[in-house]
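Q: What changes when nicotinamide-adenine-dinucleotide is included in the input?
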Amino acid sequence: MQRIDVNLGEQSYPIFTGSGIFNQFNRILRTYYQGDQIAIVTNEKIFALHGQTLMEQLPEDVQILTIFVPDGEKAKSFEQLQNVYTQLLESHYERSSLIIAFGGGVVGDLAGFVAATYLRGVALVQVPTTLLAQVDSSIGGKTGINHPLGKNLIGAFKQPLFVFSDAKLLQTLDDSEIRCGLGEVIKYGFVLNRSLFEYLEANLDKALQKDEATLRHLITVSAQEKAKVVMQDEKEAGLRMVLNFGHTFGHALEAEYHFSRLKHGEAVILGMKCALEYARLIDLLAQEEYERGLALLNRVPIPFESAVLDVDALVTRMAVDKKVKQGKVRLVLIKRIGEYVFHSVDNTNLLRQAFEILKS
Ligand SMILES: NC(=O)c1ccc[n+]([C@@H]2O[C@H](COP(=O)([O-])OP(=O)(O)OC[C@H]3O[C@@H](n4cnc5c(N)ncnc54)[C@H](O)[C@@H]3O)[C@@H](O)[C@H]2O)c1
Ligand SMILES: [Zn+2]
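A: The predicted holo structure follows.
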């Protein structure tokens, strides 16, 4: 088991990573939480697969409540938020209680927001069960729900007591969910860590096949990278923007092609191709690095029909993305694999051209 410390003063906490580490959960939980009311927020699918593993590790002398929310993004709603509050209130959960988020990013965001707000805040433990949640969403304290007018618009920062990421839980994930998580992992390689990128070049196929040792390594390195960024920019004032590499293009694709079931991480992989193309077009990125980057991304199979690409619609979408500043689209690009730069777009024609890469 590895431990990564997220140092945020009073709000500091560790991330534990490994595979087959659940036999240590009880001991760690008892170190960080001495209260006697624990509520698990999860969904039925995850709980059926892995609930037993968690339940066996909970202390015997505490009150335990399991709260189920629907599968998928619809769980991040006002309705489900109220559902969770109601169950906690009906079971008389107090200020000293603990919420365990047991699921992917959806459960983590909802349960985290509950923990930030229920009785003005109770303790939280994140037990992420998807690759995306283990490498990204469980780290950094961002929690929240969706508003009918947009995603993730209602939320709060809430740091957990600890994060517990066991790669073994990922064996039951669909391939598309592995791809989504890998999109974020590849992103860390591109913007922050050249040796992670090189490791991916050598081991991407093993990761796609859910090789446990490979996933464990990727989770640990990714958690370190995200933790470093969060430590330098806890409240998202600037540096956290680097995590948007591929996302400005990706969000446009995600919004435009949600009907073809393009998932977030998959859209980010396509978005990173566009970002590489853009960087090449403005002579920021050398041809050799560009080709190397593209070659890695092309090894992740994404079910996307390039014939449906509507470049004008995509560029219009980019202009309304929240990362637009003073009327200009702001991009994260790389000048070399492992080194990011920030860039303001002067010529939207270049955005158009960058999307064209998806047609080749
Ligand atoms: N807070 C943040 O910083 C942050 C960062 C990135 C993304 N997010 C949010 O995360 C969410 C996406 O998270 P996600 O990709 O984990 O999706 P998700 O939570 O919907 O999980 C994906 C699917 O996998 C299932 N699942 C979960 N664990 C499983 C397991 N071990 N075996 C089999 N199936 C399992 C889920 O039930 C679901 O059907 C989005 O709502 C996004 O906004 C938040
Ligand atoms: Zn993302």
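Observations recorded in class: The longest strand covers residues 328-336.
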